[in-house]
Amino acid sequence: MFKLNKRYWVCQVLGWGGWTMINLFFVYFFASDMYLAPPEKRKIFFLVLLIEFAWGIIATHLLRFGLKNIQWMRLPSQKIIVLFIIGVTLTGLLCYYGSKHTALRSNSSLVEYEKKEYLQRAIEREKSLNVAGTQYYLLSKPAGKDSSFYKAVISIKSSTGWYRNKKGEWQYEDQRRGRFWWDIIFTFILIALWLLIYSLGEIISVSVIFLPPKMNGIACDEKVILFQ
Prior knowledge:
two-stranded antiparallel ribbon
């Protein structure tokens, strides 16, 4: 049992660790300016990778624990499909929100860091337009030649997500509204891939159990079941 559990944990660490390294590779070579500078942001980026790595393992291990307890591979195929969908959905939500909550509680949220970056850009944009300290946010959309100035002021919100409300207080509105859905759907895809690989391991394990006593000169009890 110890050997079987050891191999399972090795597969978990290698699998989620491999995904973490893929993320690091693409960021390092294609988005280093976006995530690896300045040093404070680079530190947060690595902490986020660590948090997501840990939650990936925790969430999928809980999924495996639940599926093994109900012996899902012995159920009819229709129930297996339903359990697959439910398992992917619940595990994906746990992984996604667990990572986000942990990042927020540990002050390691890239989203919050970027919001602060955008706020500084909005303040600088105000200064460059010479509207800092004025009540420009009370302007209504003008017509004619003054519309270019209005568009420049509106660009503060469109480029940073930050704008001043009628009281002059800074408010944030995410301009990338599809980001949430992309992140959550991609998490579901990762969990689904994990469960497919795990299911394949279960099928192989069952096949090994029912092999003839001897095959190719190797005793059946010498077979290794990786995912049990």
